[in-house]
């Protein structure tokens, strides 16, 4: 089943996006680094907020899958996804 992308918040310093995902009926705060979006989702370093959000939504299926795998290995209420996480999968 394809997960619907949540509405993320872009951090004040523009280095990450934060969103809430539900996993095993519990909310999990997830943070995706901008570096990961640039390296694995073709986000240009100079991209504005609108483009950043579009890239997040377009890549959310993969982001969600990586987040679930990471949560299976290390259950948590707070999850950080970096470029290293996407390099593995």
**Order of secondary-structure elements:** EEEHHHEH
Strand order of the largest sheet: 1-2-3-4
- Give helix % range: 40-55%
Hey, roughly how much beta strand do the residues contain? 15-25%
Distance N to C terminus: 19 Å
Low-confidence stretches: none
Shape: globular
Topology:
Blueprint lengths: L8 E2 L5 E8 L2 E8 H7 L8 H10 L1 H14 L4 E4 L1 H6 L1
Parallel strand pairs: 3-4
Antiparallel strand pairs: 1-2, 2-3
Structure explained in plain terms:
With 89 residues, this protein is of the alpha+beta class. It has a domain at 31-88. It is built from 4 helices and 4 strands. It has a 4-stranded mixed beta sheet. The longest helix is centred in the C-terminal third of the chain and has 14 residues, at 60-73. The model has no long low-confidence stretch (mean pLDDT 93).
Keyword list:
89 residues; alpha+beta; four-stranded mixed beta sheet; 4 strands
In short:
This protein is α+β, with helices and mostly antiparallel strands and 89 residues long. It has helices at residues 34-40, 49-58, 60-73, 83-88, and strands at 9-10, 16-23, 26-33, 78-81.
């Amino acid at each position: 089943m394809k997960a619907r992308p949540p509405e993320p918040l872009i951090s004040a310093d523009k280095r990450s996006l934060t969103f809430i995902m539900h996993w095993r009926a519990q909310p999990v705060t997830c943070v995706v680094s901008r570096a990961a979006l640039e390296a694995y989702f073709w986000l240009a370093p100079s991209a504005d907020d609108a483009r950043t959000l579009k890239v997040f939504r377009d890549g959310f299926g993969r982001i969600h899958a990586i987040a679930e795998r990471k949560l299976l290995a290390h259950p948590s209420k707070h999850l950080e996804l970096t470029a290293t996480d996407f390099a593995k999968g």
